[in-house]
Amino acid sequence: MPRAPWRRRSTTDSPRPAGRGRRWTGRLRRSAVARRVLRVRHRQPAEPYRAPAEPYRAPAEPHRGPAEPHRRHWSRPIRRHPRTAATIPALTAGPATPDLAPAVAAAPISLLPGERTVRRQLRFVLVNACTLASLSLGVLAILLAMRGDVRSAAFCLIACVAFDGLDGLLARRLGVASPFGSQMDSLADMCAFGIAAPVVVYASIASEWSGGAAGEGAGGTTESVPPAAAAVACALVAACAAIRLARFNISPKDSRFFSGVPTTMAAAVLAVAVLIDLPLSPTVLLCGVAVLAFAMVSGFPYATLARLLRLPLWLWLAPLVGALVDARLTFVALVAAYLVSGPVLWLRHRRAAAA
Hints:
355 residues; mainly alpha; two-stranded antiparallel ribbon; elongated
């Protein structure tokens, strides 16, 4: 075995007989290693720091003369950096825990920015009343569709479209537009156009299934689709409407074009399709509903209503004459033209940017 500094004999590993040599019981060997490793030093608790009146000066180390060259100093003086009262961070008296912090009264959030006059507040209430009317009519459309009165539910959706356009117009004209109003408008649109419209469409298809004695589908055809397919198509409209509204709230606004078909336009198309009873098979109708849902979340530019009103007069006369001849065919042609206008405008803008 390797030798260790605390072993007494080098020839054998047997313990030293009792009574010989130095005693180990209750003592430490008088060596530097044992004292440094095994010795326990008791320290006094530190006193609180007090800033000295003048900078600290370390005492000079004792001079080692030639008379004691063999003496080794194991305890070295601790070097302390001079600290003054200016260098000590000031301790501010404050609560130890957040629970003890004094409660600060939060400032009330103003729903209507600007001056708070009675006239402006009445205007603000009028605008939000139109928004709440749109939301209430959406709920009424759902209840009527559940009772089987699909046509009345579709008329409620048309009224929702009218109130949705009226509240924004009044807010801009009366000068009471606010972030609260925009959020309320989005919630009302989700209720009326994102939930009520697909429910009315599903109720219309379900009434055609139950009303046809010979198994006729929508429009007088004998074809029918499973209810699960209709439920998926209507749920797709609700999901795309939610995505469209959330994206609209965080996107920069453009007065010329919409990014995707607006939910108001999609709900108006679905409501009119239910009212005029299109002579199309249920499969074609559900495919059209799915295409309309994907058009809402697409990035294609679609013209706003203000831009459509600036079209030449002869372009408005053609749909009016067509509506007198065949309203259903004219409606399908107008909806198809509007859906195709988005990709066409996107291609034109892309070619103009490339040139």
